[in-house]
Amino acid sequence: MNALAASAAWLQPALVVAVAFRVAAGEADAPWLALTALVAPLVALLASGRPSSRNPVVAVVAAVAVTLLLGADFLVAADVATLLGASRWHGVALAALPALAVAAWAPARRVSPWALAVAAAVLLLVPAAVALAAGAMPWSAWHRSGVRGALTFSDGSAWVTGGERFARATTLRFAEGQRVVALAPGVYRVVERDAATPTVREWRLASGEALTLRPGDELTVEAGARVRFEAGRRVPGAPASGITWADAPARGPRMLPAALGALVTLLGGALALVPQARRGRVAVAGPAVLLAVMMAALAWGVYAAAVPDLVLAGAWPAPLLRLPALALGPAAGLPLAALSGLALVVMLATAALALRERLARASSPAPELWVAVIVAATALAAWSFDPWRVLTLALGLAAAAWAPARLAPSTTGALAGPIVGGVTFVTLAALPILASGTPAWLEALARYPALVAMPLGWLAARLMPPGGPGVAEA
């Protein structure tokens, strides 16, 4: 398999929009995440491996991991439907179609690598157009966003003029008083923190009714809730200022466990999903496309940060779908937004084809298995889960219980490593459910269980005595 085809399994739409969204939101881990998302597949492309027979543990793990990966992609499609004013299931159903179609279309494998390259080029179009229109390259836009004062709603914000919908249940924290108007009936939960003991109130509002929030209050809204805010007020949940956005206070030594967890999760996930590529003159195409896509995601996030309320709804695709019209005007922006959406659909199809090949190698090539995986991923996306949690669970499980089989020197190790890594991963991932009030020092392990599970799985795989031919390409 050439490097371009091998990279397709890594370039999931969910991962691409996650990088753009987290950069735009000013998340502390955004730069580290983007760098790791670029380096991890490059390491996997170079990692050596030996072909081997399947084993039942890896077969089950591969099916679950692929289901979760597609579920994260379908959750992004559901967010797209929400942004467009449609029902979530419309987006999920339309996303499942290309994932099914590539399995039945014979020329898909031949066309897929070049379709991925074209999609990567298309994703670079909007940042390039915004750079020309604004007269600012991404690093200049980063500087401009970093010197802003308070991040507030503009007079022309969609949240002010006509209101917007939340993609999933969200809790907003208000730094200053604000009047919020409900534009759809629903239950709105307010936590008032102006006294020693917080007061919790639930309001069932009809369309047009309003809540007055005070500084320090928290407002929890349901998925699909549609509200309107006041112009000139701070965007709830946004960084306090441009300086805070550019240099998040959470960055520092305390971020190290989570940063290492993300590194192990993404690196291990890449080792499981991205096979070793053939050497040759076209080998550079894979790394080039990986670099182009990550550069595009970073640029989207940097330019979207100029509109701080773009990420308020919690919809990952918002920077990609809303930025073009805001930056370039509807006439030029809407066609480019549609073209970018089409590029994400192409990336979903190429990723699905690559995942099906990985699943066929690790588990079974039966079409019935692929259909079952699509159905399970569709059912998962019907719920308003956090796509970041689903994505990290998918990559973490692959890192803990699939990658050790690739690194194992024997068939015995290829069985023991996934068992040890998988059991450890499931135990740590279930900590918040099994033990409420998890200590702070265990928080990083609960978020990224692969931080411990993958090394233990690798050790178990390496320490087992030889029991047959080497295993590495599971």
SS element count, helices: 21
The domain tally reads 2
Tell me the total number of β-strands. Answer: 8
Could you spell the SSE succession in H and E letters? HHHHHHHHHEEEEEEEEHHHHHHHHHHHH
C-alpha Rg, in Å?
A: 23 Å
Q: Helices and strands: which structural class?
A: alpha+beta
Taking all residues together, what is the mean pLDDT?
88
Instruction: Indicate the overall shape.
Output: globular
Main β-sheet description: 4 strands, antiparallel
- What portion of residues belong to β-strands? 5-15%
Q: Which strand order do you get reading across the main beta sheet?
A: 1-8-3-6
Q: How far apart, in Å, are the first and last alpha carbons? A: 15 Å
> Helix coverage percent of residues?
55-70%
The stretches of 5 or more residues where confidence is low (pLDDT under 50) are 468-473
Describe this structure in words.
The protein is of the alpha+beta class and 474 residues long. It is built from 21 helices and 8 strands. The chain has helices at 3-7, 13-25, 30-46, 56-83, 88-104, 108-123, 125-134, 138-146, 158-161, 242-246, 256-273, 285-304, 318-328, 330-362, 367-381, 387-401, 403-407, 411-429, 431-434, 443-447, 450-463, and strands at 164-165, 170-173, 178-182, 186-192, 199-205, 210-213, 218-221, 226-228. Strand 4 (186-192) and strand 5 (199-205) form a beta hairpin. The two termini are 15 Å apart. Residues 468-473 have low confidence and may be disordered.
Task: Describe the secondary-structure layout.
Layout: H1 3-7, H2 13-25, H3 30-46, H4 56-83, H5 88-104, H6 108-123, H7 125-134, H8 138-146, H9 158-161, E1 164-165, E2 170-173, E3 178-182, E4 186-192, E5 199-205, E6 210-213, E7 218-221, E8 226-228, H10 242-246, H11 256-273, H12 285-304, H13 318-328, H14 330-362, H15 367-381, H16 387-401, H17 403-407, H18 411-429, H19 431-434, H20 443-447, H21 450-463
Antiparallel strand pairs: 1-8, 2-7, 3-6, 3-8, 4-5, 4-7
Helix pairs in contact: 2-3, 2-4, 2-12, 3-11, 3-12, 4-5, 4-14, 4-15, 4-16, 4-18, 5-14, 5-15, 6-12, 6-14, 8-12, 11-16, 11-21, 13-14, 16-18, 16-21, 18-21
